[in-house]
Design brief:
96 residues, mainly alpha, 70% helix, elongated, Orf, hypothetical
């Protein structure tokens, strides 16, 4: 069975919250035709996605800044390094 990014093995998670907050949350979930677990999973996915997107934007900004400062590698050096990596991976696969 192939699992997608969010279809990994499931685990339980316990959270201690105020009873009134739980009741209000469950009522809100019901009004949206959802259950609490669905909303919490959605919130967790959105939080992880926002964090990843923020990290990715920071990486792109850092790369652009390096480019503007001239802190780059020549194409032939990158190509040579990539070729060496491909050769190494091919050898590892062949050795299996």
């Amino acid at each position: 069975m192939v699992m997608t990014r969010w279809q990994m093995a499931q685990v339980n998670m316990s959270v201690r919250i105020d009873a009134e907050l739980k009741d209000a949350f469950m009522a809100a979930a019901k009004s949206m035709d959802r259950n609490g677990s669905q909303l919490i999973r959605d919130f967790m996915r959105q939080t992880v996605e926002r964090q990843h997107n923020s990290w990715f934007r920071d990486q792109v900004a850092a790369g652009r800044q390096q480019l503007e400062c001239g802190d780059v590698l020549p194409h032939d050096m990158v190509e040579s390094s990539a070729a060496a990596w491909r050769d190494e991976m091919s050898r590892k696969i062949a050795d299996k």
